[in-house]
Amino acid sequence: MKEPGRYADGHGLYLFVDRSGAKRWVQRLVIQGKRTDLGLGPVSLVSLAEARSLAEANRRLARSGGDPLHEKREAREVLTFAQAVERYLEKKRAEFRNDKHRKQWRATLDTYAGPVIGPKRVADITRLDVLRVLEPIWETKTETASRLRGRIEAVLSWATVAGHRMGDNPARWAGNLSELLPKPGKVAAKGNHPALALADLPRWWADLRTREGMAARALQFLTLTAARSGEVRGMTWDEVELEAKLWTVPAARMKMSREHRVPLTDEAVAVLRALPRLDGSPYVFFAPRGGMMSDMTISAVMRRMQEAEERRLTEVDRKAGRKPSTASRGYLDPRSKRPAVPHGLRSSFRDWVSEHTSYPGDMAEVALAHKISNAVEAAYRRGDQLEKRRQMMEDWGQMLQGTRSATAATPYGDN
Question: 315-365: per-residue pLDDT in tens?
């Protein structure tokens, strides 16, 4: 259409062609009882499909008593991804099952997307930005990464309809990221977190204790307690009883939604006592600005340790006159030969209990806060074997230090 004029597409959507030849989309609708013309953008930037989608969203909003014109004014703001998450969650508050679900949804974005694209304008986010968020965890935390992708897509979809960005959604899977990432169901590493070989643990532990920084101390504490990363990163001082050497994780922060008591070894208590405290932050292992430390921060410690160990072994080969090995080596999983990750330390602990100690496997499952069978659960219902587990964790700590062999046969009796 080249002749100047107005051309109807239906449902109040019009194409205006100016005398200059410029073309733009305009929607006519009733907003809070008043007929209004709402510009949707030039044809050069907004396709017919996008104009129809925007028009439909505006009609729905106007029918519910909202004001699309106000939304458009807000869209003129420079909106970052972090701000878009806030707006999206506020708009969708009623759609979440409960407040816990909303917090979990938010935590995933804060942990993985926030450090990478949080400060970036939503209008500038590209497919490469989304890949920078997803690729580091796509094969090691596939289920989490898949959920994260969907949540980024939802936020960017809202930002597009609200007028903060244009074009295709860079987090869309079909015909987009599906061509660049392996299908979640086909990722071989899914559910198999690389774990340290027991024989390498004392050497790795000695290396870790020389590392400085809050993240290194968090990793040290995580190892001593065999806890999940999220449990340690979200740990607050009011959960800890230093004199009683006890850490109580509330049900709201546990995967199984059940309170979990963790006996602390002398070394674990010493780690906590040596930590600084930040005014205004409740977290034990706080991020530089006082918030919760990200999962990637702890993972980065292990990654740096692996890289340093590879360089050390290469230097050993060089000094010995040997050709440096091209095979993967360092702190590796003995089965997959992949570098160990923080969550894999729980597997190392479980392997030690089952293969090298006389402690019952069910006690290890309680220590790991795993879901256990009904029969076993009934047996433990009256207590969580706290004192028995205290001795088991002391033995684990001694094995890490190399002061006790991998095999522990500490007798244990009924409480």
Answer: 888 888 888 776 668 899 888 788 899 999 999 999 999 999 999 988 999
Tell whether 300 is covered by a domain. Answer: yes
CATH number at residue 68: 3.30.160.390
User: Is 149 in a helix, a strand, or coil?
Assistant: helix
Residues sharing a CB contact under 8 Å with residue 346, sequence separation 6 or more, in sequence order:
193, 195, 226, 227, 228, 368
- Ranges under pLDDT 70 in the chain: 1, 70-77, 187-192, 326-328, 372-383, 404-415
SS3 percent helix, strand, coil of the chain, rounded to 5, is 50, 10, 40
Helix H, strand E, coil C: the string for 307-359 is HHHHHHHHHHHHHCCCCCCCCCCCCECCCCCCECCCCHHHHHHHHHHHHHECC
Alpha-helical (H) ranges within 19-118 are 48-63, 68-75, 81-91, 99-108, 114-117
Among 151, 186, 221, the domain-final residue is 186
Give me the torsion for CA of 310, 314, 319, 325, rounded to 10°.
Answer: 140
**Integer Cα distance of 372 and 4 in angstroms:** 73
Looking at the structure of the chain, the number of domains it has is 3
**What DSSP character marks residue 247?**
E
Instruction: Evaluate if pTM is beyond 0.85.
Output: no
Residue 304 is part of which domain span?
Answer: 198-401
Instruction: Tell me which residue of 405, 404, 402, 390 sits closest to 266, measured CA to CA.
Output: 390
Token pair 């392996």: residue: 182
DSSP 264: -
Of 74, 89, 117, the residue at which a domain comes to its end is 74
Does some domain include residue 412? no
Do 126 and 262 lie in one domain? The reply is: no
